[in-house]
Amino acid sequence: MGRRRVAQAKGSDTSPTQLRANVHASHGVTEKRVRILQAGMRVFARNGFQRTSVETVAIAAGVSKQTVYNHFGDKKGLITAVVSTAADPLAEEFDTILGSTLADCTDLRANFEDFGRRWVRLLLGPDTSALRWVMLAESESQPELLAAWGEVSQEGALRQIAGRIERLTQIGQLDVPDAWRAARQLRALLLGEAERVSAFGRVALREEEIHELVASGIDIFLRAYAPAGKTNPPHPQ
């Protein structure tokens, strides 16, 4: 996703919800390392970074404290690995979503709405939201982690979206004078509104709410940027 990865100890793993399924195939890490990362994800999301000791994570993972140090060096190395475990696959999933929705827009509104719904679900899921709240709360002591997370949820994503908007403008499907500004506006219309309604992921959105929020945001976006005659009517919910 054109993103800046967080530096970490050996390897990287996967997202909170995909950790068990994907980590072995993609990185060949040991079972103990997987258990430590799973435990770290849960405990850090619940208690925060500062209030969580290496020993607490070790107990939750069913390993010794020394085993945690052997894999990650120290607490900071563990935190960095856990954040990367969440951030990297989110960015990969965003790549997949973008490529499967906005690469070839046969139905401009349907494609953008599909993209919007999947983007909202990706970034406002319960595991993702819990970890983001921890990083926001402790950003003063761990600014580099929050910066890396922002690369996934904002800057890196916006660069990708702007590139797709430029391409759609070149082939006449959109009429956008400033793709970077349009990408920021699209994020505000989709994620900004969803974050407001969900209290930044603390309140789960119902599927019908996601559909309504996204349809409304895309309607505004296309009224502004679709060439005359290409603003298809909203699809029935």
Description:
The chain is mostly helical. The protein folds into two domains: 78 residues, Tetracycline Repressor, domain 2 (Orthogonal Bundle), CATH 1.10.357.10; 136 residues, Tetracycline Repressor, domain 2 (Orthogonal Bundle), CATH 1.10.357. It is built from ten helices and no strands. Helix 2 packs across helix 5 and helix 2 crosses helix 7. It starts with 18 loop residues before the first helix and ends in a 12-residue tail after the last helix. The N terminus is likely disordered.
Low-confidence runs (pLDDT<50, min 5 residues)?
Answer: 1-28
Give the amount of beta strand, in percent. Answer: under 5%
CATH homologous superfamily classification of the largest domain: Tetracycline Repressor, domain 2
Task: Please state the oligomeric state of the protein chains shown.
Answer: single chain
Structural class: mainly alpha
Describe the global form.
elongated
CATH architecture field of the largest domain? Orthogonal Bundle
Percentage of residues in helical conformation: 55-70%
Mean residue pLDDT: 82
Our count of domains comes out at: 2
Rg from alpha-carbon coordinates = 19 Å
Q: How many strands, what sense, and barrel or not for the largest sheet?
A: none
Along the chain, the helix and strand elements come as HHHHHHHHHH
- Briefly note the CATH topology name of the largest domain: Tetracycline Repressor, domain 2
